[in-house]
């Protein structure tokens, strides 16, 4: 009976492992519009390295707020409401207040910077962020 149970458990685990490829082939949402930005003037914030493909950078991540599988955020991120957003400044400050994100974004041009991500899981990405 124990051998039968072990065989069943191993079979279930292998079936789930094999199904990961099918999940990886699931269609993803389309490409988002580019944000207006200027190249960064910060040393090291640009690169001549090959950038990671948009598809890979936008569909493989660990934002657990959107799910526990690495492909869940790509499917579920559209549920995040980014408007209206406010930032509240309070505490020991000279000018406390609430600021709309749109007003903060008008304070200076957005810069594009290159980030190099290296993970202990064995993957790495070179990604432009605004």
Automatic annotation (TrEMBL):
Domain of life: Bacteria
Entry annotated with the keyword Phosphoprotein: no
Keywords: Signal
Keyword Signal: yes
Domain Oxidoreductase molybdopterin-binding: 81-121
Signal sequence, renumbered to the chain: 1-18
Protein name from the UniProt record: Molybdopterin-dependent oxidoreductase
Species per Swiss-Prot/TrEMBL record: Myxococcus llanfairpwllgwyngyllgogerychwyrndrobwllllantysiliogogogochensis
């Amino acid at each position: 009976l124990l051998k039968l149970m072990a065989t069943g458990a191993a079979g279930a685990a292998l079936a789930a492992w094999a199904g990961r490829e099918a999940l990886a082939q699931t269609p993803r949402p389309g490409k988002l519009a580019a944000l207006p930005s200027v190249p960064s003037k910060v040393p090291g914030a640009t690169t001549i390295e090959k950038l990671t493909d948009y598809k890979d950078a936008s569909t493989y991540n660990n934002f657990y707020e959107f799910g526990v599988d690495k492909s869940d955020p790509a499917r579920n991120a559209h549920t995040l409401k980014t408007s209206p957003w406010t930032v509240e400044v309070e505490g020991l400050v000279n000018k406390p207040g609430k600021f709309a994100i749109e007003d903060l974004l008008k304070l200076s041009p957005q810069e594009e910077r290159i980030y190099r991500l290296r993970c202990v899981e064995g993957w790495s990405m070179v990604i432009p962020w605004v």
